[in-house]
Amino acid sequence: MSIHRITLLPGDGVGREIVPEAVRVLETLGKRRGIRFEFRDALVGGAAIDRFGVPLPDETLQAALEADAVLLGAVGGPKWEGLEYAKRPERALLGLREKLGTFANLRPVILFPMLIDASSLKPEVIEGIDIMVVRELTGGIYFGTPRGVEPYEGGERGINTEVYTTPEIERIARMAFGLARKRRRLVTSVDKANVLEASELWRKVVTRVHAEFPDVELRHMYVDNCAMQLIRRPKQFDVLVTTNLFGDILSDEASMLTGSIGMLPSASLGGRVGLYEPIHGSAPDIAGQNLANPIATILSAAMMLRHSFELEDDATAIERAVHRVLERGYRTADIMQPGMTKTGTREMGGLIADAIAEDQHGSQEGRG
Fold first, then answer.
1. The CATH number of domain 120-258, selected from 2.30.110.10, 3.80.10.10, 3.40.718.10, 3.40.50.2000
2. Domain 1-102+262-368, what fold?
3. Residues with pLDDT less than 50, the chain
4. What is the rounded (10 degree) CA torsion for 352, 353, 358, 360?
5. At 188, phi and psi to the nearest 5?
6. Cα-flanking dihedrals φ and ψ of residue 34, to 5°?
7. What is residue 360's predicted lDDT score, i.e. its pLDDT?
8. What pTM value is reported for the model?
9. Active site residues
10. Are the CB atoms for 172 and 241 separated by under 8 Å?
């Protein structure tokens, strides 16, 4: 029986509470369906700064590179906000993505029907939404040079540079078109080509790559219009592909279509080792209080099974368990509704694990 090696990076804040719940679900699934997981813990973000003085220690990076997949919680918090940018917890995320070669971030935006009232938008606007946001992850303004803060007449000047190359755009475009082929065959490429030269190149290259996928429709949209259309008519979108900065903003906006940022997982792919994490932050205001919603992390574990281990049926088993628990009326504070049963982080994780254990679709046969 093969062993699936997973490096766990709980990080800071609620990360230390939600990752253990995903592990509990994976362990339950493993026992139920004959899958062997091997877990290894490492420090990242603020926790690593406190221990080693850097957000991404060599030991942590090595543990990530030696794994089959990485499951990350969240990093950051007020405690470390005064540090220089190069040493802040968030730099660990950029470092991991760069070293692992995960150039594509996949963020599915799917509305669970029983949570339709948790969204601030009208039910008829969001009912049935199923969007995949594909964000370029290792280029753009977060990595471009020159960058920094320098003396300037009358004070200082802050510099960040938006840079994209043809190969970077080609590979993310091909991934988006490939995903669309398995969905509704529509890609919307988001840029700001009317004012940014880097976006002008983005649009030109995406258009050229589209010729390799004639069975997929391509639409172009400016980022400001896309931000509006996500609220106005979100069901028009299938696959959204965009730059690092625009994807960071639009994916968080899209998350609120579902009612809570605590519901959405993500997968960062492209290298040998995939990186999986919820899209929410460390939420220090509720950390340690058993209030955080672990569902996004648990669904990130499902994405791990699907994309890193090619265990489609087992990924579906986790998603089916989440659906069943929500259907039974259990809710964490962020998605609480009248008449539902409020649960904490640990209770929600336990309920989902129990739902997997009782799943009649599961198989107790061993796997090679």
1. 3.40.718.10
2. Isopropylmalate Dehydrogenase (3.40.718)
3. 363-368
4. 80
5. -110, 115
6. 70, 45
7. 62
8. 0.89
9. 142, 192, 224, 248, 252
10. yes
pLDDT in the model for residue 304: 98
- Given this model, what pLDDT does residue 235 score? 96
Q: What's the pLDDT at 365?
A: 42
- The distance of Cα 321 from the centroid of its chain, to the nearest Å, equals 20
Which tokens go with 68? 């089959």
The ranges assigned to domains in the chain are 1-102+262-368, 120-258
Contact 332, 286 (CB under 8 A): no
Beta pairing, strands 155-159 & 148-152: antiparallel
Q: Would you say the CATH fold of 120-258 matches that of 1-102+262-368?
A: yes
Output the pLDDT for position 120. 84
DSSP H helical segments within 34-117, as ranges?
A: 46-52, 58-65, 91-100
What is the per-residue pLDDT for 361?
Answer: 63
Distance CA 299, CA 265 (A): 6
Q: Nearest to residue 293, comparing CAs of 265, 317, 252?
A: 265
Residue 359 has a pLDDT of 81
Distance (Å, whole) CA 115 – CA 260: 9
